[in-house]
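User: Hello! I'm new to structural biology and keep hearing that structure can be predicted from sequence alone. Could you demonstrate with diguanylate cyclase? Please show me the input and the output so I can see what each looks like.

Assistant: Of course. The first part below is the input, the amino acid sequence of diguanylate cyclase. The second part is the output, the predicted structure written as tokens.
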Amino acid sequence: MIMLSHPLRSPDGHYLGYLGGSIYLKKQSMLSDIISLHFYKDNVSVTIVDRDGKVIFNTAPTMTRSPVNLTPQLKTYMSNNLNGSFAGRDYLVGYAGLKKSNWNIIVSTPSEVVTSMLFNTVKKISGLVLAILFFITTGVAFLSSRIAKPLEQLARLVQTNDSLTSPEKLSSIRAWYQEAYLLREAMEKRFRLVSAQFAALSDEAMTDPLTGLYNRRGFYEQLTYIKNLKNQCAIAVDIDHFKAINDRFGHSTGG
């Protein structure tokens, strides 16, 4: 039994008496219920040792009033170490000292109990962790494919030989983020510039530089274009001594 008391004094400081209460540690009480309340249930051993080195509470009633030699070295060891062994069995030990009451509280539980609890916890959360990893992996894969799709389409289009329709095909590519959009715009401008240069070189190869009229190559190119058209005709006149006519009558007359 533990006797607790507190002095009662008047407003002017005179001693009036005391308020006392007793706690029966060997019987079920509120204190014993609080001390024994652990989620490990029966696998935890709680021991309270008073200032005289006697056990005043233990989850095993037979240990009550037993002497315990708690030396300062042992208290320091229990404060700095989380495990130990007793009777050939490994335990996890927790120690705390209450300065006001000079009590020593020791909590111990077998190591295999904690290991089993951790293993059960891992089994319970493993399904959730795997589900989270699955959704994260799926999301990353989907986002990566969405990011790579415009770049892949641009790369395939560059490899094609259809230089005349490439600018129009570039415009149809959906570049939904800024980097792909800027790359598409740069490639589209480059394709249009190359197409314009190609057309200029083609016209230059099919026209006479002096008169600007189609030469023989240009004539055959136009003939291929209009041969399937109705009400169209083409006349080719091959004039000998063309240079002499130009020199005598001028380029406008020779043209």
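User: So the tokens describe the shape?

Assistant: Right, they're a compact way of writing down the 3D structure. Reading them back into a model, for example: The helical segments are 30-35, 72-80, 111-159, 166-172, 178-206, 216-226, 242-249, 251-254.
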